[in-house]
Design brief:
This protein has 496 residues and is α+β, with helices and mostly antiparallel strands. It contains 13 helices and twelve strands. Helices cover 52% and strands 16% of the residues. The longest helix is centred in the N-terminal third of the chain and has 65 residues, at 6-70.
Length: 496
């Protein structure tokens, strides 16, 4: 059986307690910091998602307000009334029946549609959009040129109610498309149909690495709002949206934003990922309902909101927050790879292991010192007891402190003193000194009391032996008298 010393046991016990304590504290610290770090990333993603969502909503709200006021421009109505055969009669009625007050108000319908699209639309900003350009004679071309400049539009189209192009301002102006149907340009197919009833934002279209969409709104008869004269269409450059989507401020090293659009059982990604080129993006644009990878993208496209650990399109685990942008019915997802979340945790884990190892190492040194400090007097006690077990009465132990070991040393010294007195008393008895003084250590000192009893017994036995010897000697001497007389009776004379 392996012999394990008390020093080893003490060191093992101290190390066990220290390692258990360090492990428990490290686990608690690791778990707490893991939740704190994850919560911090969640809050950061939520803030980014909210900010990006507000920017996108503000961008399109500004265009919604803008195009609605654009449909009320005098020059827009006049252009439709003059050039569209469908509404010439309505134009004649409007000229005939218009009151002077209406004419004055109509002349001031030319709007300076310049508003900061980076802020949320407020009543004050709507009032800015309504600010009137006091030039009563400003023509349609001048108005649309201002819109193109202020809003970075690609083109502005004006059609009649059937979608026939009446006016174009912008990059496509030089093309001979006046009089053609807007459907030749409309990849969405609903820009005119829905735009005749309300403000409509089409799907996103791509030309190379550029993206755009159409915003359309009905131009109504001023006297009969239920009659639609035509449709005003903005060809909106989405460069600002893409710049906002590709801005990774607050998203760490792997975070990114994804915009999506729902198409029933499928969805479309509207922007490439952070490190994704346009070729890969064009090949991975389509999302399928029920797919495991990127399911949060499809969920956001369908108007769902949520957060959690999911898989991205590449199969990597990401922490994602997804929501819907109602004004254009887009999905918005902000995500960051779980690997990046794990990086500070690995650093924390390394620090915990490092400092834990230092604590254990220091504890080992202290355990060795403490065990030596504790076992040194114990080893002296062991040697002392070993001498006693072999019958040797060693010199007194040096008394230590007032702890248990010091108390044991004093008790052993008293034991040795008692044994010395007992041995001396026994030696005196052996020499026949029955009068030697001896005081037992206590009333329960079995050895001392036994020696006293033995002394008394030996003394009594010696006294009896002396008496017996005296009697025997006396009898022997008396028995020798007749023999002596008989032997010497003839020779005996008085006085001899």
């Amino acid at each position: 059986m392996i012999k394990i010393g008390i020093q080893f046991k003490i060191v093992l016990l101290v190390l066990g307690v220290v390692i258990l304590s360090v492990s428990a504290i490290s686990w608690i610290a690791f778990d707490y910091n893991q939740r704190i770090i994850e919560q911090r990333y969640r809050e950061s993603l939520e803030a980014v998602a909210e900010l990006k969502s507000r920017k996108i909503e503000t961008f399109f709200q500004a265009f919604a307000v803008n195009i609605q006021f654009g449909t009320q421009l005098k020059a827009v109505r006049e252009k439709i009334l003059q050039d569209s055969p469908l509404v010439k009669d309505a134009f004649i009625r409007q000229i005939t029946n218009a009151s002077s007050a209406d004419s004055v108000r109509a002349s001031n319908d030319s709007l300076l549609l310049a508003v900061d699209t980076l802020s949320l639309i407020t009543n004050e900003q709507v009032a800015q959009i309504k600010e009137v350009v006091l030039n009563e004679n400003e023509d349609l071309e001048s108005l649309f040129s201002k819109l193109l400049t202020n809003y970075n539009l690609n083109n502005i189209y004006l059609t009649d109610a059937e979608g026939t192009l009446l006016f174009v301002e912008g990059k496509n102006r030089e093309k001979a498309i006046i009089g053609q149907s807007f459907s030749n340009l409309d990849k969405d197919g609903n820009t005119i149909a829905v735009g005749r009833d309300s403000v409509y934002f089409s799907n996103v279209f791509f030309e190379g690495e550029k993206a755009y969409l159409f915003a359309s709104a009905p131009v109504r008869d001023k006297n009969k709002p239920e009659d639609v004269l035509g449709v005003l269409i903005y060809d909106i450059d989405l460069r600002y949206i893409y710049e906002a989507a590709l801005d990774t401020t607050g998203l760490g090293k792997t975070g990114e934003l994804q915009l999506t659009k729902d198409f029933g059982n499928t969805g479309l990604r509207l922007n490439p990922g952070r490190k994704e080129n346009w070729v890969d993006f064009s090949q991975k644009r389509t999302l399928k309902l029920g797919q495991r990878q990127g399911q949060h993208l499809m969920a956001s496209a369908k108007g769902e909101e949520g957060e959690g650990m999911v898989q991205d399109l590449n199969g990597n685990t990401v922490l994602a927050i997804w929501k819907n942008v109602p004004v254009v019915d887009w999905g918005l997802s902000v995500q960051i790879q779980a690997e990046e979340l794990a990086t500070p945790m690995r650093e924390l884990l390394f620090l915990l292991f490092f400092y834990g190892f230092i604590v254990v190492l220091v504890s080992l040194v202290f355990a060795l010192l403490f065990s030596q400090l504790l076992t040194r007097p114990l080893l002296r006690l062991r040697e002392f007891v070993n001498l006693l077990s072999r019958g040797t009465l060693p010199t007194k132990l040096t008394q230590g402190g007032r702890d248990e070991i010091g108390e044991m040393s004093r008790q052993l010294n008293e034991l040795v003193d008692n044994l010395r007195r007992t041995a001396h008393f026994a030696n005196q008895i052996g020499q026949g000194n029955f009068e030697a003084e001896f005081q037992p250590a206590s009333a329960r000192d079995i050895l001392g009391l036994s020696l006293l009893s033995m002394r008394d017994s030996i003394r009594q036995s010696a006294e009896r032996d002396d008496e017996r010897g005296w009697i025997v000697t006396g009898l022997a001497e008396i028995g020798d008298i007749p023999t002596f007389y008989h032997h010497h009776r003839g020779a005996w004379r008085p006085g001899l």
